[in-house]
Amino acid sequence: MSEHSPKTQALMAYDAEALSQAGQRRIEHHLEACETCQRELLAIQTYAELATEIRSAELPRLDYGRMELALRREARDQAKGSKRSVAWALLALAAAVLLGVVGLRQRGVDSPQASRLPERAPETQLAHADTLPVDSSVAPQEQPLEGELTAVAGVVRIANAQANLGDVLHEGDVLETGVASGLHGRLASGTGFALAPDSRLALSRVRPSGIVLSLQHGAVSNAVLTGTVYQVDAGAYRVVVRGTRFSVARDGAEVRVSLAEGTVAIERGDATLEVLHAPAEWASPGAETAATDTPGVDSASVERPIGLDMELRWPSLTLPPFPRVVAWEVEGARFPADALVALRAPEGELTLQAFDARGRAREVHLEMLPEGLTLTEAMLPRIRVGTTQGELSPEAIRTVVRSRQAALRRCYERVLRRQGDPSLTQAAYSLRVDVGVHGDVRGVELTASGGEAHPALRDCITHEALGWIFPAPGGGPVSFELPLNLSAR
Questions:
Q1: Is residue 213 within 8 Å of residue 187, measured between CB atoms?
Q2: 379, 407, 428 — which closes off a domain?
Q3: Are residues 100 and 130 both part of a single domain?
Q4: pLDDT of residue 443
Q5: Of 336, 368, 364, nearest to 351 (Cα)?
Q6: What's the rounded Cα separation, in Å, for the pair 314 and 311?
Q7: Which of 68, 115, 162, 244 has the maximum number of C-beta atoms within 10 A of its C-beta?
Q8: How far is residue 255's CA from residue 258's CA, in Å, rounded to a whole number?
Q9: Per the domain annotation, does 338 fall within a domain?
Q10: String of b and e for 166-197 (b: at least 16 CB within 10 Å)?
Q11: Do the strands 156-158 and 161-162 form a parallel or antiparallel pair, or are they unpaired?
Q12: What does DSSP say about strands 316-319 and 373-374: parallel, antiparallel, or unpaired?
């Protein structure tokens, strides 16, 4: 029999069918062998049934005219003596109780189930009332939540100290990633974020009543469980949500938002500037966004944080750097392979992709054990080079690349500003892109005239291009070369 403390919030989400399919299956598998969680789930279900019965019960209809008459008679009789003082008190108490029950029913607080998983706010009503200023008061009994790092790639820091997989995330922490690094964090069940390379993020508020992240520079992708009040501050702008998947990028005063699922409100000061419905993009004045003739935002443009359904503690997967591997893909999340990568992964079968410098992918099938797993070079299969070349129309290629050109230019400008290397402005660049049979980018290679591309520029552009999604090519995978115009604005 399991001796651990039951994860009540996860079991409530399971009972409400609010988890992903994988999350539901993991909870079901755990319940088969854990009597502690079986009892907790039974208590949750019983509580919900009682709440339903209470809500369905009809309250007695009150004749307020007769009640008023009875009170008047009772008041007259009081003048004759004090014998009826006790009856007066009981009658007043009964009236107060009945009126209180009616008031509670009208406000909807008689339903314990309503506090289990808050209903999603109407999308058209996302407004300043849902925002959570960093300095807002918090009830003394509300304790901050504790999150966890679910994936770490390269050099990442929390409060200027090296961070590691499994480190606890606290309210007030400041997270930083290097140029070729990244991290994923889980703040609550089904809610978390992925911090892009070369970014800085503060966990301004992490409470059950709401979460506020402050993006100081770089980019952060977010996944939010429906009903969770969640806000990202980026300079003068706020992005407010209640269940969605989106990313926010900030470069100085310029802010860009990409929305893959759900709805977000863009706010500044006391004003709501715009309410976005997925798929959509938004940019502050002076910042560039996707071309208006492109069909919105594809789901791959917003990175999906991993480990958010980690109701039960997952084992760790360690991916050391290998000479011929430049990037990893695990459960849809991409990580640079320049340094050690550590992340949480569920027990059982797991498939990951290993990319080499030419953009070719190796599919690695693993069996995750309860004690964790460290990948060795012997586990990496040899790359199988396909002989079939598919077709992808030039117009389809231009449509995708045009919508992402601004992101490539930002890579160039950021590296030029920070590195100050004059050779960056003197080179001509081209990008080789390998597209798989499903339209996902399987590999990229940046080349520069007169030699290799600057490492920081190569890493940034590679990270951006690996997230592109093209229409599925006909006849097999496709490879093509793109000349890049990266001159600074």
A1: no
A2: 379
A3: no
A4: 80
A5: 364
A6: 9
A7: 244
A8: 10
A9: yes
A10: ebebebebebbbbbbbbbbbbbbbbbbbbbbb
A11: antiparallel
A12: parallel
> Which residues, including other chains, have CB under 8 Å from residue 53's CB and lie 6 or more apart?
none
Cα 267 to Cα 231, 264, 329, 413: the distances in Å are 10, 10, 34, 27
Beta bridge partners of 351: 365
pLDDT score of 134: 43
Residue the block writes with tokens 């004090």: 82
Q: Evaluate whether residue 252 is within a structural domain.
A: yes
Query: 40: domain range?
Result: 8-56
Q: End of a domain among 18, 39, 56? A: 56
90: in domain:
yes
Whether 307 maps to a domain, the answer reads no
pLDDT for 121: 36
Q: Are residues 33 and 127 in the same domain?
A: no
**Residue labelled with tokens 């917003």:** 302
What stretches in the chain show pLDDT beneath 70? 1-7, 9, 18-22, 47-141, 242-243, 288-304, 306-313, 357-359, 382-389, 487-489
What is the DSSP code string of 104-152? HHHHTTT-GGGGTSPPPPPGGG-SGGG---TT----TT-PPP-EEEEEE
- Structural domains of the chain, count: 5
What does the CA dihedral 119, 123, 128, 130 come to, rounded to 10 degrees? 20
Q: Can you tell me the distance from the alpha carbon of 431 to that of 447, in angstroms, rounded to the nearest whole number? A: 6
> What DSSP character marks residue 475?
S
Q: Half-sphere exposure of 93 toward its Cβ, with a 13 Å CA cutoff?
A: 6
Same structural domain, 258 and 328:
no
The strand pairing partners of 248, in sequence order, are: 220, 257
pLDDT at 90: 47
Question: Is residue 196 domain-shared with residue 243, that is, in the same domain?
Answer: yes
**How many whole angstroms separate alpha carbon 365 and alpha carbon 350?**
6
- Pair (404, 374) in one structural domain: no
Same domain, yes or no, for 375 and 431?
no
**Strand bridging mode 200-207 / 373-374:** unpaired
pTM above the 0.90 mark? no
Residue carrying the six token digits 């789930």:
41
Query: Do 132 and 210 have their domain in common?
Result: yes
Q: Same structural domain for residues 141 and 252?
A: yes
Look at residue 393 in the predicted model and tell me its pLDDT: 87
Residue that is written with structure tokens 């503690």 in the block: 313
Partners of 429 in beta bridges: 448, 484
